[in-house]
């Protein structure tokens, strides 16, 4: 019969299994992607710039730790977060790292280089200004994430399609881009492309979770 100390040790082994599953940057990225919507392995591989084989291996680690779940549809298997606590865990991990690790601040500073104009529009002004036509809001995420949930009055222009969409954008209108949240680089890249093309563009650092929490209307499927 196990002693209470052995039982405690086994309990902490289970806690450590969660920590191990979060020890890979790529697995954290996969969890961030799955917070947007459920996805197939092939889609996750493309979103994260990994091979399908590597993506599948990382997903198996996350599944073994109980952080993701699957469903089958025909020949395809879709992955999703196990529940909202998983996203809360990753969000708290990011907040702790930003508060305790100096390198995070330095990396964020590099990420935001030459991106003046952040947050010049208050959250509560986004929808009224979009409705009035004062700004045009672009959702730069892939289409599956837009279809799952997006800000009201935002239009879907994935970063991969933005270059071919430029001639359809009004030159005299302010353009606001958003993606997955404060650590997402898609909107940064979009704003740089838009500014180089002569548009008055800026980004909002919020993603869908932050916008919803702030009371900004979100359209969900």
Polypeptide structure, described:
This protein is α/β, with parallel strands linked by helices. It has two domains: 4-92, Orthogonal Bundle (Arc Repressor Mutant, subunit A), CATH 1.10.10; 109-220, 3-Layer(aba) Sandwich (Oxidized Rhodanese, domain 1). The protein is 52% helix and 16% strand. It has eleven helices and nine strands. The chain has helices at residues 4-21, 25-36, 41-48, 52-64, 84-100, 102-111, 123-132, 143-148, 159-162, 186-196, 208-213; strands spanning 39-40, 68-73, 76-81, 135-139, 149-151, 155-156, 174-178, 201-203, 218-220. The protein has a four-stranded parallel sheet with strand order 6-4-7-8, with helices on both faces. Strand 2 (68-73) and strand 3 form a beta hairpin. Helix 3 packs across helix 4 (52-64) and helix 5 (84-100) crosses helix 6 (102-111). The protein is elongated, with a radius of gyration of 20 Å. It starts with a helix and ends with a strand.
